């Protein structure tokens, strides 16, 4: 199942609205890169685990 990371659900002074969806490992990698480059976090196993624990299942799109 595809996963979603939504920056709106994380505390931020930037009011970031980015949403990333895809396979779990893709989302964790992209969200951690975003957290480092945009939000100034340090890439670490703890950051990636925090991201992973906040992932939600993507809701299927209906045609």
TrEMBL record:
Q: Which domain of life is it from?
A: Bacteria
Q: Which InterPro entries match?
A: DUF1059
Q: Which Pfam families match?
A: DUF1059
UniProt protein name: DUF1059 domain-containing protein
Query: What phylogenetic lineage does the species belong to?
Result: Bacteria, Bacillati, Actinomycetota, Actinomycetes, Kitasatosporales
